[in-house]
């Protein structure tokens, strides 16, 4: 939406004795008149431009009022012509300056053809975008000159990039309806890609067979929420998924010669809680099998160091990018993700974690639920804009701890209304072993009977612990396009690594 007109541009001149030339804003009053005249002659012309053109796109203020009034009449099922519009403009001083109500009749009488109405509308629309582009540029220059010490230049760049991207998105004519034929073409192409892949996935792989089976991979435009209580392994699982996707990524040429990704993806990991170095240590620990604690303290052998060097060479060649900016805003995150999409064909975004993101500065609110709602809507919009899956981690409320069965459910999500509504997939991570370790029987040692009872309880505890040791559950609590259920994974806490759980149907046949 356009605001007040910016200062006209004064072109520099070489001869100092001449007055500077005046450069007016881009506009085409004749095209505006031709379009309005066509609409007043044949109201059907309004339908050809109403999908992208609004009153604010007109340069002349009176033309804005005429277009808006005519559209309102047409929307109510009335006829818009000079006669019906007369009642709305009688006594209008602005219209009186250019001929009064007679100007409406001249517009209709001057309509040369109604065939080109859409072309006139596109010309008006394009010139409006140019005026807005000039305004953004002038405001950028003014802000750069008048900024204070506290206003960081990088934030200004990101804000300007956001405005330019929004303007570019508004400038697309492709919005609105598309035929089922075009949609089916995309659906068939996606199914064909899944058929050709060894994993038969249409989305980005998670690296876990059972999770891939229930999700079909992580799909374009999906917002996937991974939630869990502290110490359940949310970050570890998200890191594993990101690494698996980056490792599986291959670029190949499709039938048309364009580059397309295999079942993996280039990954952008926004780590708001851990530093990039800590995250890299986890990835290195997963790849080498050496605990990250040992890596930090130098507790490894020479052979281990050789493995570390070899693994680091492999990892550094992956399309894995980390941004550890603390408390990054949703606007800055979107701007950086779009930039990476342009530069490296980004295929997966991971955010660790949701509640640490900041809403846009202009929309800060005392209501945390509204802020989370804006953040989740922004992540979902980003997923659709650049057509990549977004995996965002989320905390759970303490209500889980009050139940006997501590498996999470949708109502346990903090600010659950907004998150649950915007998410396409909600995953919960749950490790029963964590709770068993906290409930180890305590020795009594008062008399023999109590000692025997204690030993019996310890044995029962050990038996039960053996059944849950190293087992993690990924609960698919919501799946907009598929089934829900529970997937079991193996968790190696020593190196914070999740892996496929060996099952009888995956074991090799026993020898005769």
Task: Give a description of the structure.
- The chain is of the alpha/beta class and 512 residues long.
- The chain has two domains: 9-170, DNAb Helicase, Chain A (Orthogonal Bundle), CATH 1.10.860.10; 216-420, Rossmann fold, CATH 3.40.50.
- It has 19 helices and 13 strands.
- The protein has helices at 29-41, 44-49, 61-75, 82-89, 93-96, 102-109, 117-146, 153-170, 180-196, 209-215, 234-248, 276-288, 292-297, 302-316, 330-344, 368-386, 416-422, 432-438, 448-468; strands at 9-11, 21-23, 223-228, 251-253, 259-261, 266-271, 320-323, 346-352, 390-395, 425-430, 471-479, 485-492, 497-500.
- A nine-stranded mixed β-sheet has the order 7-6-8-9-3-10-11-12-13, sandwiched between helices.
- The chain is elongated.
- The N and C termini lie far apart (77 Å).
- 30% of the residues are buried.
- Mean pLDDT is 78; it is low at 3-11.
Instruction: Quote the distance from N terminus to C terminus.
Output: 77 Å
CATH-assigned homologous superfamily of the largest domain: P-loop containing nucleotide triphosphate hydrolases
Q: Which term fits the overall shape?
A: elongated
Number of strands: 13
Question: Sheet bearing the most strands, described?
Answer: 9 strands, mixed
CATH fold descriptor of the largest domain: Rossmann fold
Domains, number = 2
pLDDT < 50 runs, ≥5 residues: 3-11
Beta-strand content bin: 5-15%
The computed structural class is: alpha/beta
- Mean pLDDT equals 78
Strand order of the largest sheet: 7-6-8-9-3-10-11-12-13
Number of helices: 19
CATH architecture of the largest domain: 3-Layer(aba) Sandwich
Radius of gyration: 31 Å
The CATH class of the largest domain, by name, is: Alpha Beta
């Amino acid at each position: 939406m356009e605001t007040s007109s910016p200062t006209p541009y004064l072109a520099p001149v070489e001869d100092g004795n001449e007055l500077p030339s005046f450069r007016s804003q881009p506009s085409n009053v004749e095209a505006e008149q031709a379009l309005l005249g066509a609409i007043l002659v044949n109201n059907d012309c309004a339908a050809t431009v109403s999908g992208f053109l609004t009153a604010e796109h007109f340069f002349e203020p009176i033309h804005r009022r005429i277009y808006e009034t005519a559209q309102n009449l047409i929307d109510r099922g009335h006829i818009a012509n000079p006669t019906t519009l007369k009642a709305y403009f009688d006594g209008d001083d602005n219209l009186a300056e250019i001929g009064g109500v007679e100007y409406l009749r001249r517009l209709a009488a001057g309509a040369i053809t109604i065939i080109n109405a859409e072309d006139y509308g596109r010309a008006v629309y394009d010139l409006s975008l140019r005026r807005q582009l000039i305004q953004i540029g002038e405001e950028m220059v003014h802000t750069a000159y008048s900024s204070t010490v506290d206003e960081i230049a990088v934030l200004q760049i990101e804000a300007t990039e956001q405005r330019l991207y929004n303007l570019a998105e508004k400038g697309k004519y492709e919005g609105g309806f598309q035929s089922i034929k075009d949609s089916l073409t995309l659906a068939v192409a996606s199914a064909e890609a899944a058929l050709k892949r060894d994993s038969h996935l249409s989305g980005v792989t998670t690296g876990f067979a059972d999770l891939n089976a229930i999700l079909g991979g992580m799909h374009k435009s999906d917002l996937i929420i991974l939630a869990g209580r502290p110490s359940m392994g949310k970050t570890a699982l998200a890191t594993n998924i990101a690494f698996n996707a980056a490792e599986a990524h291959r670029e190949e040429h499709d039938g048309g010669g364009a580059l397309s990704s295999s079942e993996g993806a280039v990954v952008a990991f926004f780590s708001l809680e851990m530093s990039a170095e800590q995250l890299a240590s986890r990835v290195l620990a997963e790849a080498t099998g050496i605990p990250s604690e040992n890596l930090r303290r130098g507790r490894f052998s020479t052979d281990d160091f050789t493995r570390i060097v070899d693994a680091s060479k492999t990892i550094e060649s992956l399309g894995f990018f980390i941004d550890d900016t603390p408390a990054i805003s949703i606007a800055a995150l979107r701007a950086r993700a779009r930039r990476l999409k342009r530069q490296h064909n980004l295929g997966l975004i991971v955010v660790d974690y949701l509640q640490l993101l900041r809403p846009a500065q202009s929309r800060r609110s005392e209501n945390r639920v509204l802020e989370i709602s804006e953040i989740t809507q922004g992540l979902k919009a980003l997923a659709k804009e650049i057509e990549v899956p977004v995996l965002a981690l989320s905390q759970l409320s303490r209500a889980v701890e009050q139940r006997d069965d501590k498996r999470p459910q949708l109502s346990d999500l903090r600010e659950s209304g907004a998150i649950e509504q915007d998410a396409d997939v909600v995953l919960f991570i749950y490790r029963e072993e964590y709770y068993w370790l906290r409930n180890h029987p305590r020795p009594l040692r008062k008399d023999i009977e109590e000692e025997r009872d204690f030993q019996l309880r310890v044995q029962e505890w050990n038996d039960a612990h053996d059944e849950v040791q190293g087992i993690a559950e990924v609960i698919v609590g919501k799946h907009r396009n598929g089934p829900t259920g529970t997937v079991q994974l193996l968790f190696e806490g020593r190196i914070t690594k999740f892996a496929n759980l060996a099952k009888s149907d995956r074991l090799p046949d026993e020898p005769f």
